[in-house]
Amino acid sequence: MSWKERCEYMSKQRKLPLYVQIKNKLVNNIKEGVWQPGEAIPSESQLIEQYNVSRTTIRQAVQDLVQKNVLETRRGAPTRVREEPQVELGNPGIMHHELGTNMEVKVLRFEKLKEHYHAKYQLKLEEEAEVYLLERLRIADGRPIAFQQLFLPLSIGEKVKEFSYKDFDIFPKLGQHNIHYTNIQEVVSASNATQYEADLLGIVPGEALTDIERTTVGIDSMPIEYSRTKYLPNAFHYRVEIGK
């Protein structure tokens, strides 16, 4: 890190509330594997001494991560890193799934790109940054049901390389690398199939598709994935439940 970059970083850090700065340090320890899933983190007193901050600041930082299901606390027991963060459960009022039994993927391309500025904006990356593009067909019972483009920061893409050609869902494997998500934002709309998409899905250009735009946020509040998936309408089920 250059002197200018260091100064800019310190300037940004000073603008953050103190408890957020501490929370970010705790998150870095989890991401870097200093504290493994299921392992107890240092005690409140040890954290106070380590970071030279007040008990209130430590409690606020820890509680924020507990609320995000990154850490877990139990009466009379030390605070631990969650084995499997419950954030993966999602919103119980919104349920959607692909229709079919035998699910697989076919990778069309997986490469670094500097284009796709909208994707980089969603990932909070600089305009000149590179991203990985993973382009796949999602297949159910032997037939393509969706065309998918996933955009990943370079650090995430390097890990996805290992399993992108065989895993239908990348997030369980990312969890094995201590990369978990705390929030998923989805926008559902309709779009018309391009010639390229129609050829891949075996339909006529211009046919309507269910278009799902998704941004996935990690435990450090930074996006870890932005994707756009276009489904055949009869291959995707979406239901919203409101009420108790």
UniProtKB/TrEMBL annotation:
<keyword id="KW-0804">Transcription</keyword>
<protein>
    <submittedName>
        <fullName>UTRA domain-containing protein</fullName>
    </submittedName>
</protein>
<keyword id="KW-0805">Transcription regulation</keyword>
<dbReference type="Pfam" id="PF00392">
    <property type="entry name" value="GntR"/>
</dbReference>
<dbReference type="Pfam" id="PF07702">
    <property type="entry name" value="UTRA"/>
</dbReference>
<feature type="domain" description="HTH gntR-type">
    <location>
        <begin position="16"/>
        <end position="84"/>
    </location>
</feature>
<dbReference type="InterPro" id="IPR036388">
    <property type="entry name" value="WH-like_DNA-bd_sf"/>
</dbReference>
<dbReference type="InterPro" id="IPR028978">
    <property type="entry name" value="Chorismate_lyase_/UTRA_dom_sf"/>
</dbReference>
<dbReference type="InterPro" id="IPR050679">
    <property type="entry name" value="Bact_HTH_transcr_reg"/>
</dbReference>
<dbReference type="GO" id="GO:0003700">
    <property type="term" value="F:DNA-binding transcription factor activity"/>
</dbReference>
<keyword id="KW-0238">DNA-binding</keyword>
<dbReference type="GO" id="GO:0003677">
    <property type="term" value="F:DNA binding"/>
</dbReference>
<dbReference type="InterPro" id="IPR036390">
    <property type="entry name" value="WH_DNA-bd_sf"/>
</dbReference>
<dbReference type="InterPro" id="IPR000524">
    <property type="entry name" value="Tscrpt_reg_HTH_GntR"/>
</dbReference>
<dbReference type="InterPro" id="IPR011663">
    <property type="entry name" value="UTRA"/>
</dbReference>
<dbReference type="GO" id="GO:0045892">
    <property type="term" value="P:negative regulation of DNA-templated transcription"/>
</dbReference>
